[in-house]
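Please go through the sequence line and token line underneath and see whether the fold suits the sequence. See right below:
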Amino acid sequence: MSGAFIIDAHLHTGEHGPFFAPESGGSRLLSLMDRLGVQSAILAGSWAALNRGGETALADMRREHEESDGRIRYLGVFDPRDAAESLRMLEKAKKWPGFQGIKIHPSFHRIPAEDPSYESVWDFAADNSLTMLAHSWSPSDYNPVQALSLPSRYEGHVRRHPQVRFVMAHCGGRGSGRAEALRMANAHPCVFLDIAGDIFCFHLLEALREEVPEDRIIFGSDYPWLDPRANLSRVLLADVPNSWKRMVLRDNAIRAYALEEAHP
């Protein structure tokens, strides 16, 4: 294969609150994508969308999609604390070019993943054939709100909505969270796992290939919180067949997010 073909299925642009990310705009991202052979990317909800919500944040992501000639796609954010307003915005955005699905973040919004306030957005995703991306992590003594996003907390929603393509961000985090994420990917054909974030461990890709179906692992960088080369190198240098590397770097994202683009 020649030319750019990689899909970075989990990154961010714009302001990032407590994180120092001075070069996180769309133009900087496109320049980096060109350097690394990344064909397209999915904005996993901006910090502004998570923190303040509102149509302005969605409009900013749509603008970055248009300015990138379609290379940057985006997810809308559902806030269970204001479900009706979130659904109103998602209803509007589902008709926009580049709109690819919905992001939920129980730890950020301080509402546990199994809470009934999320049911309406799962129904919305099912009715509109949209992908759901959710923050997932393991128990953390230093960051206890991570417990609100344990992989097992999503399982009731997954069982009730088996037609919804569900991506667990960060592959469940580390330790017991990752073990639960792997169990769910094996138990539910609709569950995918992305490797965005600081989930570093020795031979991660090799282990994942042995433990879950080959079509469930998706590359994501979590840029700008991490340099994309960190996770990208883990895939490129892994001791796995090149055919599986392509699945992780591109094909699985096309399935998980129902991307219409053809293979190069």
User: Anything to note?
Assistant: The beta strands are 6-11, 38-43, 72-77, 99-104, 131-135, 166-169, 191-194, 217-218. The chain has one domain: 6-256. Residues 4 and 34 are 8 Å apart (CA to CA). The first helix runs from residue 26 to 36.
